Amino acid sequence: MASAESPSSNAKQSSRNVQHVILGTLRFQTWYQSIYPEDLVSKDTDTLYVCRWCFRYACDVNTHAGHIKVCQHRTAPPGTKLYDQGGYSVWEVDGANHKLFGQNLSLFAKLFLDHKSVFFDVVSFLYYILVFADPNDPDGSYHILGFFSKEKLSWDANNLACILVFPPYQHKQLGKLLMGVSYKISGWERDPSLIGGPERPLSEMGGRSYGRFWEERMARYLVSLQASNANANSTGEPEDVKTQKSTSTKASARKKHPHELMTVQEIGLATGMLTEDVITSLRGLGVFEPATPSKTRKKPHAGSGSGSGESEAIVIRRSKVLEWAKTRNVNLRDPVRGDSFCLSPLEVRTMESPGSDDDD
């Protein structure tokens, strides 16, 4: 799986058939070689002109300018809008319905992805493109900032195959937005008993990007969980046995902090994260401590484990999570707003037209 971040300077020195691209009005350097047809793009191309709406490419500026005037996607992206918030939107594009768009996007993306291998077999993939439209732009134009792709049928329940935020738009938290949308979509689509994640193995940059994303996702969940437990406890409504009331007046005078007993598997189900990703994020947070014997009582739960041996119990305090977020200047607000989704993916499947863009 490829990452949404720039590689090291050494990686940029690798052999490239295209040195620079012009996407819209932006000119920037490529990072890797892509397999553009050699009869259209020579091995020593300095500048490749790429349509910012459909990713059609040309080495000749006049050919490119002629296409821009008639591009069928100049007024709206292909596919169906899935998410819309503050000028940013995510559109789902079915590779079967928009083969040429998927192929051109994949060829362009390879200029910035080291391990991308799917270029022409796009029928089995869905593409989720991140679009920005400036509401103050009198032309009503839009920009595609990045995308992620996923297989329609993944035996490993992967919710993402590759992800890329285009270089001019990186370091703006847009990768986290795309990752969050991928988990939201997989939460709609998956069997509740099946948990997925990004395609493995992760690249070095992908591991760093997802490590940060998982840590923030886990911190957000832990804070919201413990806050809801505290609110429930303050109402005096004993929802379950998180805390027990003592008949002793002296004991009842001592305020007990509400807490929840959960397994790693239960946290995974609640967050949509694989067990190993939950463990990775908890270790990355570094906010847990060994549980005292009084907090390690067993909690019966079907399917919570194999039952062989006892798992190590830990305690995670809300104050420690909040301190972690403060010291790293992390905003625990979810980058993906649930009320900003226009349609669920299942609705999108039934509404998108089966037309093709191969003839434009």
Automatic annotation (TrEMBL):
Q: Which InterPro entries match?
A: Acyl_CoA_acyltransferase (IPR016181), HAT_MYST-type (IPR002717), MYST_HAT (IPR050603), WH-like_DNA-bd_sf (IPR036388), Zf-MYST (IPR040706)
Instruction: State whether keyword Nucleus applies.
Output: yes
Name the EC number(s). Answer: 2.3.1.48
Query: Can you tell which superkingdom this protein's organism belongs to?
Result: Eukaryota
Q: Where is this region: Disordered?
A: 231-257, 288-312, 334-360
Q: Which compartments is it annotated to reside in?
A: Nucleus
- Give the family from UniProt: Belongs to the MYST (SAS/MOZ) family.
Q: What is this protein called?
A: histone acetyltransferase
What organism is the protein native to?
Answer: Aspergillus cavernicola
